[in-house]
Every structure is written in C-alpha cells, then in structure tokens.
Write a structure and sequence with these properties.
The chain has helices at residues 3-15, 18-25, 29-43, 59-86, 103-116, 132-137, 185-189, 202-211, 225-233, 278-289, 292-304; strands at 48-51, 54-57, 92-98, 121-127, 143-148, 157-172, 183-184, 192-196, 217-222, 239-242, 251-257, 263-271. Strands 3, 4, 5, 6, 7, 10, 11 and 12 form an eight-stranded mixed β-sheet that branches. Strands 1-2 form a two-stranded antiparallel ribbon. The protein is 44% helix and 25% strand. The longest helix has 28 residues, at 59-86. It has three domains: 3-69, Winged helix-like DNA-binding domain superfamily/Winged helix DNA-binding domain (Arc Repressor Mutant, subunit A, Orthogonal Bundle), CATH 1.10.10; 86-164 and 264-304, Periplasmic binding protein-like II (D-Maltodextrin-Binding Protein, domain 2), CATH 3.40.190; 166-263, D-Maltodextrin-Binding Protein, domain 2. It has 305 residues and is α/β, with parallel strands linked by helices. The chain is built from eleven helices and twelve strands.
Length: 305
C-alpha cells in the first residue's frame, strides 16, 4: 500500500467522481483509476460501486475510509514534524489530545501558555488512544494529553499526572435520573445506552457489565463525542462519559456508585529519549506546574451558572 494510492482513494471518496478527483490530485484519470484498482487488489475487494456513470462507496470503502484517513493524517503530521525539526527558526508545537478529553479545562492552560509564548504556534491534533503512542515515538507529536484509568503501563513514555476526572452518567434534561442523587450501574442497564466507541475505559466497563449479568441495551454507537452528546440530549439513551466533556446545560449528569472505577487521570505524555525543542520542554513543564485545581473550579462555576 502506497501513500499516493491512499490519497487518490480519499479524494475519489470525497468527490465520488474519478475525473474530478484526478484533477485535484494533478494526475490523469487513468493513473488515478489504476492506483485505486491496485489498492482494491491489495485489500481484497472493491472500494467503489460503479453503476454506469454513478460512483458510490462500497461497504468495504466506507469501512476503509476512516482507517486510511487516519494514515493520511499521520503522514501529514510526520511531514510537519520533519519540517519543524529541520527549520531552526520554527516555533511550531504539535500537541495531541486524546479525543475523549473535553476542551474546556485544557483550554485554560493553553490560553495561559499562549500568553507566555506568543511566538509559538500550537497545533492541536484530535487523536484516538490507539494512535497516540506511535505518533509520540516517531516524533510526529511533541507531547500529548492522555487519559488513564490506572491500569496502563507507559513504558517508553514520560508522563506527569495533571488532574483527576470522574466518569458520570449523562442523560437528557427531564430524564428520571434527574430526580436521583446517585446512580448504580444497575440503573444504567435499565435504560437504552449510547455507546462511546473511543472511550479508553469502554472495554473494562463492558466486561464488568457482562460479568455481573447487566445487559446494556445499546441503541447506537459512535466514535464522535459531539454526536454522542447530541444523541443523549435528544433522548435516544444515556451514556457514561467524562465529567469535563459535558459543556452544555442541555445534558444532566450524575455520578454512579459501585465496584467499578468511576474516575480517570488526565496526564501529559512525551516519548523518552528525544531531544525536544525548547518550546516543547516549556509546554511540558508548564502543564505539569499549572494550577489545574483553579481551572477545575472555574469549570464547575461556569457549568452551574
């Protein structure tokens, strides 16, 4: 599988027109078609369904689009990291944020860092948990904000804990849970459930429910945190999610009790053994020393206002 084949496929998937995709990739239409056919041969199935002049993504094409998009994004980040390393005058900082971490609390630190280092361009990358280690080890990311439920071993990563965050049950305003002070996972099992596919605590949660004969009634699953919250707001079901991800008053929430861990730690991580640029060192150090307690208090005040 070659990078240009991935790029051609993604452009064709966006346009659903091979001629237009070829023009945007600055290649001939036959060259783009041959590259996509080679990719299909390697993957073992058709990526597009062709009906006369109409082109649509096949089921395999829909499945592979997200995976190949991630590969393409990682390649772009690697190129940017290389340019930044080779350009001594560059002050570009690539920071990963695990996609399950909400923006509100972290943005307080980012604003303070920006005030102190106005010359640094901070580029934030929304990354799934499975992709983060490789991006740190290859230098595509200078550092990253990650979440941990306490079971992980970080190996070649240097990490510092920043703050703790509760996992809560989110539900639509007016839901019966709003009249209950605390919930149990038995209560959750009685409701329709919206499944957060990218949650790093998802598998232990599902395993616990299965082991205790608590059958989740999953009605919808999504990798998008914004979609999950909107579906819960609409009343499709309830969902277990991080407290600081909830930034709208249209969602109610309660902590839950029970033997399953209901909290996680937010940490900043970087790869060991690298000689980072000065701005990366400053970012890592200042994140470690930031007044996170004040930022968490401000979040709660704004949420209750």
């Amino acid at each position: 599988m070659e990078f240009h084949q991935i790029r051609y496929f993604l452009m064709a998937a966006e346009n659903l027109n091979f001629t237009r995709a070829a023009n945007q990739c600055h290649v001939s239409q036959p060259a783009l078609t041959r590259a996509i056919q080679k990719l299909e041969d390697e993957l073992g199935g058709e990526l597009f369904t062709r009906d006369g002049r109409a082109v649509t993504l096949s089921p395999l094409g829909h499945l592979m689009r997200e995976h190949l998009q991630r590969i393409n994004e990682n390649q772009d980040m690697a190129r940017a990291a290389a340019r930044s390393f080779l350009d001594e005058s560059s002050s570009e900082l690539n920071v990963g944020i695990m996609c399950t971490i909400g923006p509100d609390v972290l943005s307080a630190f980012l604003n303070e860092f920006r005030n102190r280092h106005s010359e640094v361009l901070v580029i934030l990358h929304d990354i799934g948990p499975e992709a983060l280690p490789e991006l740190l080890f290859t230098g595509a990311l200078d550092c990253a904000f990650i979440a941990s439920n306490g079971d992980q071993e970080f190996g070649a990563l240097s990490v510092h804990p920043l703050f703790e965050e509760h996992m809560v049950v989110a539900f639509a305003n007016g839901h019966r849970f709003s009249k209950m002070n605390k919930l149990t996972l038995h209560d959750v099992a009685e409701e329709a459930y919206v499944d957060r596919l990218k949650c790093e605590m998802r598998q232990p949660f599902f395993d616990f429910m299965d082991q205790n004969d608590l059958n989740l009634k999953v009605v919808c699953s999504s990798q998008r945190e914004d979609w999950i919250q909107e579906l819960v707001i609409r009343g499709l079901g309830v969902s277990v999610m991080p407290r600081f991800s909830i930034t709208t008053g249209r969602l109610g929430w309660r902590q839950f009790t029970g033997p399953l861990s209901n909290s996680r730690k937010i940490l900043i991580a970087r790869a060991k053994g690298f000689d980072p640029q000065p701005c990366a060192n400053a970012f890592f150090s200042e994140a470690h020393n930031f007044e996170w307690h004040s930022a968490l208090g401000a979040f709660e005040e704004n949420a209750s206002a």
